[in-house]
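Form 12-C: Joint structure prediction
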Amino acid sequence: NAGVMQNPRHLVRRRGQEARLRCSPMKGHSHVYWYRQLPEEGLKFMVYLQKENIIDESGMPKERFSAEFPKEGPSILRIQQVVRGDSAAYFCASSLPGVQETQYFGPGTRLLVL
Amino acid sequence: GENVEQHPSTLSVQEGDSAVIKCTYSDSASNYFPWYKQELGKRPQLIIDIRSNVGEKKDQRIAVTLNKTAKHFSLHITETQPEDSAVYFCAASTTSGTYKYIFGTGTRLKVLA
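Section 2 - Result
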């Protein structure tokens, strides 16, 4: 039973480029959360999605950031026109329907913006 | 807004001693409190959790206590070992809401051999 998968594990982008981060939840999990962790800081909630629905995006920056969780395939966090301040570790977590409170985290994608 | 404070930010203990990490939350609707351990460069791993209908939960050397009235919860690690060295995060969540976690700022635990 594979855990939450994220790819790529490391991503380097130049300012102004786009970053696409992927998250495949655990088998049977239909709820996905994205969190951002700045260096030496805690994790900050960004967005909560169910299949084909954004449930809570209260932690997402208003511009340049978007997320989706299509019916088929992984959840994707997209950052357009990246800036140096976007450099961070981005973790996704997934949970079972009906047991949403217990979230299992992926290994994270470490984004570095040059 | 919702907030979780965590103390101390760093903690050094001798191997075999106990370690205690404390968190305070602001949202009185919070009713689920997980604790995660994160080793350098790794994913956060759930080590124990507690729901608001209980005051204490124990799993081998790890225990968590919850005081709903004071909005405090604490992690206790007994007989610490060098492999317990990591960053520990507390979090609070509301199971009637969107289940998002509000994390504390983390405690870097160092167990000295």
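Section 3 - Comments
The CA atoms of residues 1 and 27 of chain A lie 7 Å apart. The two ends of chain A are 37 Å apart (CA to CA).
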